[in-house]
Design goal:
The complex is a heterodimer of chains A (about 375) and B (about 350). Chain A has about 375 residues and is of the alpha/beta class. Helices cover about 45% and strands about 20% of the residues of chain A. Chain B is about 40% helix and about 20% strand. The chains are: A alpha/beta (about 375), B alpha/beta (about 350).
Chain lengths: ~375, ~350
């Protein structure tokens, strides 16, 4: 299986230890051999973008953050490794002021790399035989810096060499998410949320059945809980639904991540936290699992629209039911849009009515009211 | 399974990449060639780690994660001093893999290390160019006398089998070799052409990306390319001395020269040439017609044209990054392991 750990779970040294404990508890002790894909510590990528633009203060911030973690986790080796990476970064920043995208990607890659070094150390402290894999050696991309696309055949060839060591031994590889290397040999990055994309691409290319995307929430929610505190977990979703949700900007889903799963191999995706993997995303869902999965509101100037996402919501029967619900609730609608090929339905409302309508629809659709 | 014991001497980028590559590809190599290379010692400038029964793959991976000059931290196998004789005595290696940095003034520590290994009856694979460029005659004659291998495939165009190709040209006479043999200077020139950067900015960028060294003189003043040309001259049996290769620094080429060349339909490339017939060897910036094959060789790619009395060859490939060079070194190790005489 492939396990991707999000940056929001990696803010301080104890978070890495906690992650390592959970990897041991959930996977190693159950005789599973995970491949760990790691993000940079929360906020580091943004800070590194400022470093790339020449901010030396921000570099000190990064240095303090990772060195503090290294000191907390102990070993002299680790501290020296972190120092080496930071001093490489410092040389770059002192050497050049450039917004050249290839340099920016190279600078950004240090965030994930440092995170990887610390994660391997934390796993070893738990007695797990972990080792570093280099994303730049394995994840081959096109040369679109900042938003690169993974070259599946080239990456597949590179992955073959790690296959044996993962298959036959008990070593746990840890590699950087978000980072790749162009065919020409330069470091690239995969864009926002790129770590998920790394995880699913590796899973699909190695024909691995399970991908765990570990984050700070228990799964995908039926609605943004800041708007609707009674929002619930979405238990099952299809790739199609997840992609549609991503297009409406739902947090925790990166549309690029589904590309390898669609094209290469349909691994199952589990989204959640160390406590609960609440959402299961698979290539197909059965008839009983169809229907509305989540609801999103978006403002577009004067008006708002509410999107209901789920396979089957553009069918006539659902539409008829929805219209009668809207009629019963007395919501004033500016328009309804659906298409048979898309797993979503859009209801346009006046902006001032939006939130109220959202809450009412959420209650009827998801709260069994 | 034919177990071959290896000592790695010099543990920078290439050494680490070699240890990782061996750990990750061991199964493939074992299955394909029935050869199992095991590392019994790793030596860097400050210390060494020795394990006579051989490091496990996991230990190799962990060695490659040590800080620079940190082999002496690898307890319980670490020693805080360097003594190759001790490693040889304890671990009895078959192959010495020399990966120390190239020093073109004295060839050290590479020359002494290789001499010691050969004199103790140990085969040598080196990625260090200086000993081969400076002391080819001496080193190969000792190896020959002792019936030992001295392999150095990774020293020129680390990512491509150039030296093997040249060695295989047994009846052809090589008349001329021209090459883009240095990745750093080719990268700098590519940036100057594509982005109209001036030389210093392109150099700084190459340094930032880790393509050029902090001291770029080896690359920019042509010494690296000249050393490679010297090695090629030894291989084809027409030895030139490193000091006899005429060098013109790339730093003399400004953005203005690049723009003028482009206007005239040329590009500028930093070419190393060995002309056997005219008896000359040089490294200099040359104007190349845009239609020429060399004009298509950009970034960190390398290429070489070999002119023989029967025709021309053109070989192109990535210059030696850590990973490519490590693979070339491993190729040599496997070749030696497959062919060496076993002492029963």
């Amino acid at each position: 299986m492939v396990v991707k750990i999000g940056g929001s779970l990696l803010r301080k040294a104890s978070d890495y230890v906690y992650a390592a404990e959970n990897i041991k508890r959930l996977f190693i002790e159950n005789n599973r051999r995970p491949i760990i894909v790691i993000s940079a510590s929360k906020g580091v990528t943004d800070t590194l973008i400022q470093v790339a633009m020449g901010s030396k203060d921000k570099l000190i911030e990064i240095e303090d953050k990772y060195l503090d973690m290294a000191h907390e986790l102990g070993s002299a080796r680790l501290i020296q490794r972190v120092r080496e990476e930071i001093s490489r970064l410092r040389k770059i920043v002192e050497n050049i002021q450039s917004t050249d995208p290839s340099l920016t990607d190279y600078i950004l890659s240090h965030g994930e790399k440092l995170s990887k070094i610390i994660m391997v150390n934390a796993l070893e402290l738990q007695g797990v035989n972990a080792f570093e894999l280099n994303a730049v050696d394995l994840v081959i991309t096109n040369n679109k810096h900042g938003d690169a696309v993974i070259d599946y055949p080239a990456t597949s060839i590179a992955l073959e060499k790690i296959y044996h060591i993962i298959k036959e031994r008990r070593y746990v590889p840890v590699l950087e998410g978000f980072i790749g290397r162009s065919v020409e040999g330069y470091v690239t990055t995969l864009g926002r949320g790129g770590s998920d994309y790394t995880a699913t691409a590796i899973a699909a290319l190695l024909r691995v059945d399970r991908v765990y995307l570990v984050t700070d929430v228990d799964g995908i929610m039926t609605c943004d809980p800041d708007l609707i505190p009674s929002a619930k977990l979405v238990k099952y979703m299809s790739y199609m639904e997840a992609l549609e949700a991503a297009m409406y900007g739902v947090k925790g889903i990166n549309p690029k991540a589904f590309d390898p799963l669609e094209k290469i191999y349909g691994s199952n995706v589990y989204v959640g936290s160390w406590k609960l993997f609440g959402t299961f995303i698979s290539k197909r869902i059965n008839e009983a699992q169809r229907g509305p999965k989540l609801i999103v509101i978006k403002d577009t100037g004067d008006s708002s629209y509410i999107a209901i996402v789920g396979e089957g919501v553009s069918r006539t029967r659902f539409l008829r039911n929805l219209i009668s619900i809207i009629d019963d609730l007395g919501i004033e609608v500016n328009g309804i849009q659906s298409h048979v090929h898309r797993p979503s339905l859009i209801v346009y409302v006046n902006r001032e009515q939006g939130i109220k309508a959202l809450k009412q629809l959420h209650r009827i659709l998801f709260e069994g009211d | 399974m034919n177990t071959t014991k290896i000592v790695i001497v010099g543990f920078g980028n290439v050494g680490r990449a070699f240890a990782r590559t061996l750990a990750l590809k061991r199964k493939i190599i074992e299955n394909k060639y029935a050869v199992s290379p095991v590392v019994v010692g790793v030596v860097d400038s400050k210390g060494m780690a020795v394990k006579s029964e051989g490091f496990t793959d996991y230990e190799l991976l962990k060695l490659s994660e040590l800080p620079r000059s940190g082999v002496n931290m690898f307890s319980p196998y670490a020693r805080s001093y360097v003594d190759l004789n001790y490693v040889y005595d304890v671990a009895q290696p078959d192959i010495h893999v020399e990966l120390t940095p190239s020093n073109y003034e004295t060839g050290e520590p590479g020359v002494s290390n290789i001499l010691l290994a050969l004199n103790r009856g140990i085969h040598v694979v080196t990625a260090n160019k200086a000993p081969i460029a400076l002391k080819y005659e001496e080193l190969t004659s000792i190896a020959k006398k002792k019936s030992l291998y001295l392999k150095f495939r990774s020293t020129v165009m680390g990512g491509s089998p150039l030296i093997d190709t040249l060695l295989s040209l047994k009846s052809e006479d090589v008349e001329r070799i021209d090459g883009i043999l240095n990745a750093t200077t080719n990268y700098i020139l590519t940036e100057m052409h594509d982005k109209l950067m001036d030389f210093n900015d392109a150099l700084r960028k190459a340094q930032s990306l880790g393509i050029a060294e902090a001291n770029p003189s080896l690359d920019v003043d042509g010494l690296d390319a000249a050393a490679k040309l010297t090695i090629l001259s030894h291989v084809i049996g027409y030895s030139v001395k490193l000091g006899d290769v005429r060098r013109e620094s790339l730093s003399n080429v400004g953005l203005r020269n690049v723009i003028e060349a482009v206007k005239e339909g040329y590009v500028i490339k930093y070419i190393a040439s060995l002309d056997v017939i005219r008896r000359e060897a040089f490294v200099k910036a040359v104007k190349i017609p845009r239609s020429d094959l060399f004009a298509q060789v950009n970034g960190v790619m390398n290429a070489v044209k070999i002119k023989t009395d029967t025709g021309d060859l053109f070989l192109m490939g990535k210059g030696g990054g850590g990973l490519e060079t490590a693979h070339s070194v491993l190729d040599d190790v496997v070749t030696v392991a497959l062919n060496m005489k076993r002492v029963v």
